Amino acid sequence: MGKTENSFAIQKVDTSNFEEFLGLIDKLAEFEKLPPPDEEAKKRLRADYLSGNPKYEAFVGKIGDTCVAYALYFFTYSSFLALPTLFLEDIFVLAECRRRGVGKKMFDHCKMIAKRRGCGRIEFSVLTWNKPAQRFYERNKAERLPWLFYRLDKENF
Description:
The chain is an alpha+beta fold and 157 residues long. It has a single domain (8-156), classed as 3-Layer(aba) Sandwich (Aminopeptidase), CATH 3.40.630.30. The protein contains 4 helices and 5 strands, in the order βααβββαβα. Strands 1-2-3-4-5 form a 5-stranded mixed sheet, sandwiched between helices. The longest helix has 15 residues, at 102-116. The chain starts with 7 loop residues before the first strand and ends in an 18-residue tail after the last helix.
């Protein structure tokens, strides 16, 4: 990775950049007007990622030495395709770095990972109010599904 101010590189999250990764998650929560992960959740994020059997995978996008974006994903399985699916939980770019191609590079990296891992598709959700993200994904050939997304919190199971 080059060290110049304008160089962009994608790097796997590891112990050297994990705190910056957590900072980006906090920035996403701020953008979505949600509470960020508390200290216990951050400990779980660390343990669940840095264990010998990680529950998710992640990478950061860097301009120079600064983390400006991240993607977090995991794999599910499609019974109809009989292939894995890359589920993109988060893709986030700092506001000051948007509209500079960073998001596209991050999304293209996810597509490359899905292809390399033999996935049949990539799935993700977008908040109904996040029109810029919707336009971004549709420009990148993503199809809006006519399904409703439901959630059951742990207090209810």
